Amino acid sequence: MSDRSTQSAVLDAFRAAMRHVAATVYAVTTGRVGERHGILATAVSSLSFEPPSLLVCVNRTASLHEPLACAETFCVNVLGLGNREIAEVFESARGEDRFGVGEWHEVLGVPVLAKAQSYFICRTAHRHEFGTHTIFIGELIDARHRENAAPLTYYDGRYMDISAAPERASR
Ligand SMILES: Cc1cc2nc3c(=O)[nH]c(=O)nc-3n(C[C@H](O)[C@H](O)[C@H](O)COP(=O)(O)O)c2cc1C
Known about the structure:
Elements: H1 3-19, E1 23-24, E2 26-30, E3 37-41, E4 44-49, E5 52-59, H2 65-70, E6 73-78, H3 84-92, E7 104-107, E8 110-113, E9 118-130, E10 133-145, E11 153-155, E12 158-160
Antiparallel strand pairs: 1-11, 2-3, 2-6, 4-5, 5-10, 6-9, 7-8, 9-10, 11-12
Bound molecules: flavin mononucleotide.
């Protein structure tokens, strides 16, 4: 195999492998009413408890990128099964229209989805560019979690309910 075909095979394997990694879906948002911005993201991870922090990886071509790079605060809304419509609207609409469905409140200057499974309001502590993306590290300034919620999960290119397949889980 040439270097080029090896690289292409590795990329294909990476894509196929990542399609089969179940990921929770988040709506990452910033801005005030009238100029709100948000995207769906799965590249989100908790970072540490001391300080409480998380990271979000955003493509530099995404509409959210510039507003997020300029904002001091942002919100990571964890989407639950009941928020599937939000995910669909975020995929089909753009700009402010993404906030046309669901109850969005402004909390500490950022858009928070009232019925999200959880939300994390963060102050941007650090940004790191890598390849096509910027990694935004946020320190938590507020967080809420709703009990008894199940996450909206993205797997193999579609949304699924992981709690509906317990018989496949090994113990
Ligand atoms: C399930 C799902 C997960 C996504 N995860 C990310 C992500 O982690 N980071 C990212 O930059 N874009 C991600 N995207 C793409 C963005 O949501 C968005 O569609 C893309 O950046 C184009 O957005 P724009 O129309 O606002 O520019 C994801 C899309 C979907 C459907």
